[in-house]
Amino acid sequence: xxxxxNMKETKTTGGDFAPxxxxxxxxxxxxxxxxxxxxxxxxxxxxxxxxxxxxxxxRKLWDNFVWDENSAWKxxxxxxxxxxxxxxxxxxxxxxxxxxxxxxxxxxxxxxxKSYKGKDGQTRTKNAMKNxxxxxxxxx
Length: 140
Hints:
This protein has helices at about 70-80, 95-105; strands at about 25-35, 45-50, 60-65, 105-115, 125-135. By secondary structure, it is mainly beta. The longest helix is centred in the middle third of the chain and has 10 residues, at about 70-80.
């Protein structure tokens, strides 16, 4: 059965996607899915994080985790910041990491606004997460 939509009542904006200001925010992972990096064929996890606390609560942030030796530091940083027992796992698999993300890892992250060129050549902005810390060391 096909669903129909009333275009006269449909808005063209899906929400506020303007970058949030630079600063430290408390976040919780709320979704993770496996995908493939088109250019290299490497496995990658696309993760969604939701801000909680006083400022910008319920806004979403996104980050990618390429599953290779060069990116293992970023996975470890998230696990350390969230006090996950997986930080000591000697054979961490992509499936275990995704399960942890889908179950909700909470930590503090510094968010900054980054500029990039869109496919149309226009300069655009987006948020980037970095400097992950446990909530007790800098989060709300």
